[in-house]
Specification:
Largest sheet: 7 strands, mixed
Number of helices: 11
Number of strands: 9
Helix content: 40-55%
Shape: elongated
Strand order of the largest sheet: 5-4-3-6-7-9-8
Radius of gyration: 21 Å
Order of helices and strands: HHHHHEEHEHEHEEHHEHEE
């Protein structure tokens, strides 16, 4: 079979499995299996597919049919124009989280600052922030923190591959962050209510780590702990920027108000839903 035939077969299989975005996923999996760019795949449309590449592709399709996320199959995920390594031990970087990084960049001054990325996962937030600022000639001091050994390992791999000179620390929130203060905290903490995890898409509830999803009973557990611990670690006029669930703004705002944060505001995503909260000390 040629590449066009193999791709069409892949699309049909994923559509039959009820995969949303079957055409996109089938194409990306074929590109990965054949080690081709999108343009190369078009050029080679009527070329015969080598047996080993065809077998690799069908193996990928079988995994995707089981609802294993595309990013776990390919081992990578795009974020802020970078490509991050990922695996089933860490949360997959998402487009919505780019809104957090965009707003962090907009709110950062034109001089070097110290930044803390709490619950870093793949490291996509802190590393992207560091790299984008470096492009402007600013070398911030950026520290990434996570409690998961797997997240720490993936963040270290990504920092090395992308050339980001960041600090990466295994810590239960602030437990290993001693006598340090920051100008900005960025965080996409676990914020799904425990009772709602089983209602999520199979790709999420069955494959993504619950440690990175579960915000306990009301989804606010980590916001509360992070905000309370931040009071003594955020410099005067420092900023905190959180990703939130679409129905959590008022609750997170309340936690910030209770801890004397000011100028609290919300940023919506492209669907018009609350997505990011910004506040100042």
């Amino acid at each position: 079979m040629n590449y066009r035939e193999v791709l069409n077969m892949g699309i049909a299989r994923l559509e039959s499995a009820g995969i949303e975005g079957a055409k996109v996923d089938a194409k990306l999996l074929l590109q990965k299996a054949a080690d081709l760019s999108s343009t190369e795949l078009v050029i080679k449309a009527y070329d015969e597919v080598e047996k080993e590449k065809e077998e690799a592709y069908f193996a990928f399709l079988k995994k995707r049919e089981k609802r294993i996320p595309l990013q776990y199959i390919t081992g990578e995920a795009p974020f802020m124009n970078y490509v991050f390594k990922t695996n089933e031990k860490v949360l997959i970087p998402r487009f919505d989280t780019e809104i957090l990084v965009d707003n962090a960049l907009k709110n950062a001054p034109d001089q070097k600052i110290s930044v803390l990325d709490m619950c870093c996962g793949t490291g996509c937030i802190g590393i992207s922030f560091f790299l984008e600022r470096k492009r402007k000639g600013i070398s911030d001091s950026v520290t990434l923190v996570d409690i998961s050994d797997d997240a720490i390992a993936v963040s270290k791999e990504n920092s090395k591959l992308l050339g980001a000179d960041v600090n990466i620390v295994k810590s239960d929130l602030y437990s290993e962050i001693k006598n340090e203060s920051f100008d900005m905290l960025l965080s996409n903490p676990p914020y799904i209510k425990s009772s709602e995890i089983e209602t999520l898409l199979p790709e999420v509830k069955d494959y993504e780590p619950h440690l990175a999803l579960d915000g306990k009973e009301n989804g606010l557990y980590f916001y509360k702990r992070i905000i309370e611990g931040l009071k003594e670690r955020l410099n005067d006029n420092g900023k905190v920027i959180f990703e939130i669930g679409c129905d959590q703004y008022e609750a997170v705002k309340g936690l910030l108000v209770d801890n004397s944060f000011r100028n609290i505001r919300v940023v919506k995503d492209l669907s018009g839903l609350d997505r990011v909260v910004i506040a100042e000390k």
